[in-house]
């Protein structure tokens, strides 16, 4: 079965960096685009970034562009999010999510991890 | 940046029809997707490509889209349908994704 397990969250001071990981299993990782989505406490979902199946293209939300970097290691079935220059407003649960194959469910995010909490505070 | 607009809340009695709207300038050319999120849980896809239902999603969930507005309809809403509902789509480039602000559905 498809599993996505995030790790790397924690408490970090403003201006510092943190790297999140998402370990994927139960499917052929190299065939799928992958996303990061976040949710601030008590707030709605916010799309953060996407990386294509082969890592050839990456796109970011304006709120994180230039500070966050999405990457993947297909040999390790792992997705990453490098977060630099963190701000209080980056405090959120960070979810990794798989993008469906177009012929199955369009470009929906069909599987999600349970999330990892990042708290930016001094 | 591109935005999708949803009403913050929708309230219906059990058995009634709930409709949640989502408006966005790119929706005439881009598909809408809908997610249900219950407290403390990851989101679940309930509608994809405007009006298609994933396996395992009850038939009372349906979707439609016309012009700049997409609509999620829950026919005969049940108490267990309570939660937050988010629309999701892409900007006109098709590269950046966006979620609506979410609508809290109350069934009581």
Task: Give a nutshell description of this structure.
The complex is a heterodimer of chains A (122) and B (108). By secondary structure, chain A is mostly beta strands. Chain A is built from 1 helix and 11 strands; from the N terminus they run E-E-E-E-E-E-E-E-E-H-E-E.
Mean pLDDT of chain B: 96
What would you call the structural class of chain B? mainly beta
Low-confidence stretches of chain A: none
Number of helices of chain B: 0
Per the principal axes of the C-alpha atoms, what is the gross shape of chain A?
globular
Helix coverage percent of residues of chain B? under 10%
- The proportion of residues forming helix of chain A, as a percent range, comes to under 10%
Q: Structural class given helices, strands, pairing of chain A?
A: mainly beta
> Using only CA atoms, what is the Rg of chain B?
13 Å
Mean pLDDT of chain A: 96
Helices and strands of chain B, in N-to-C order?
EEEEEEEEE
């Amino acid at each position: 079965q498809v599993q996505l397990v995030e790790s790397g969250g924690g408490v970090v001071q403003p201006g510092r960096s943190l790297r999140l990981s998402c370990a994927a299993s139960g499917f052929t990782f190299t065939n799928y685009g992958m996303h990061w989505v976040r949710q601030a406490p008590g707030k709605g979902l916010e799309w953060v970034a996407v990386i294509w199946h082969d890592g050839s293209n990456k796109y970011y939300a304006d709120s994180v562009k230039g500070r966050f970097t999405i990457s993947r290691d297909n040999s390790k079935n792992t997705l990453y999010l490098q977060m630099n220059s963190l701000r209080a407003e980056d405090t959120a649960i960070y979810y990794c999510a798989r993008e469906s194959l177009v012929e199955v469910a369009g470009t929906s995010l069909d599987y999600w991890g349970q999330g990892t909490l990042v708290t930016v505070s001094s | 940046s591109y935005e999708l607009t949803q009403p913050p809340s929708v309230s219906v009695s059990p058995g009634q029809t709930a409709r949640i709207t989502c408006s966005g300038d790119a929706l005439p050319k881009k598909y809408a997707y809908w997610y249900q999120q219950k407290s403390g849980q990851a989101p679940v896809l309930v509608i994809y490509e405007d009006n298609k239902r994933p396996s395992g999603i009850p038939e009372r969930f349906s979707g439609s889209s016309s012009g700049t507005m997409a609509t999620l309809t829950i026919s005969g809403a049940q108490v267990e349908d309570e939660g937050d509902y988010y629309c999701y789509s892409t900007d006109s480039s098709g590269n950046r994704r966006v979620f609506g602000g979410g609508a809290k559905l109350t069934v009581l």
